[in-house]
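Fold this sequence, please.
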Amino acid sequence: MSGTFTNTRKLTFLALMLAITIILDLTPLGAVPLGTISATVTHIPTILTGVILGPLAGWIMGTLMGLTSLIHALTRPATIIDPLFIHPLVSVLPRMFIGITAYYTGQALKKAVKVPAASFAAGVVGSITNTVLVFLMLYLVYAKKVLELVGAQSYMAVILPVLTTNAIAEAVISGLITMAVVLAYNKYSKSEI
């Protein structure tokens, strides 16, 4: 992240990822309501920021994504549990770690495998980080309320369908998009040096 706020290219990339996050949040492109949950790809710009610019930029982008989620919950909730995202521990805190985990996954695997596989894994881990931490915070802050809203007997009955359907699809899509963008970014960056 060294020099991100003084490097025009890095600052532009960060601003572009924030703009894409806002567009994804404001349009049907970023969140697809599926019953009691919203399947999201809004976290992908945060993953990309972490992988390309580093963990601090990923943390900043994750925080901004979380604030976008909080504003979304305040202004236009789409599902019955969206109002619970007004709480910053549910909307902001989990998203702060997306870019960080994606960055360190990519860095750890770059030494063992080629960049495409490391980037794919970084995208998958970033997506899983989002899903797991959001559901963990929903459980810690609102477990009883979630069960009342969805009419379930146990929290596992709420989370298991998501983990076996949406979470897998989101992780694969995140991995594929991360891999493609990182490869294109690396190719472009090398040609500009």
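Strands lie at 31-34, 37-40. Residues 109 and 118 are 5 Å apart (CA to CA).
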